[in-house]
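User: Some background: our group keeps a shared notebook of sequences we're curious about, and every so often someone picks one and asks for a predicted structure to add to the entry. Today it's my turn. The entry only has the sequence so far, pasted here. Could you supply the structure so I can complete it?
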Amino acid sequence: VAACRSADEALAKQAVKLLGGWGNENGLPAMLELAGDKALPVAGHVELMRGISRLLAGQKKLDETMAVQALGMARRPDEKKLLLDVLAKAEGPKARAAVEACLQDPALKEQAAEALEKMQKPDNGKGNGGNNKKKNKSKA
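Assistant: Of course. Here's the predicted structure to add to the notebook entry:
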């Protein structure tokens, strides 16, 4: 992470690119910390936010706190839309509130509405068609 804040612009750019492409979720805390740095150039911020979105989307059990935090840090609608897709798998009230707040932004309204719709489905947008209900075992 220190290299990402280096005065050497080329080194910092390469370090951010490397961190943004990190392959597993143990890099999420460092990525979130760096993405929250307002001094980070937009290109680096975008690289990190896309990496954060990718890693969160790959989690078996979504870390909703990190996803909401990331949504709050995103600077551009493109990255916010990626995170809305991730949050569509969320179940908690904080995640729902974060998605609902995006309905006020014309650039995010459609994506936020889709995410809320997925959050309301019995399978929570996970693609199993709502088949997580217990089967009726009563005999006819």
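Suggested note for the entry: Residues 123 and 130 are 4 Å apart (CA to CA). Residues 128-140 have pLDDT under 50 and may be disordered.
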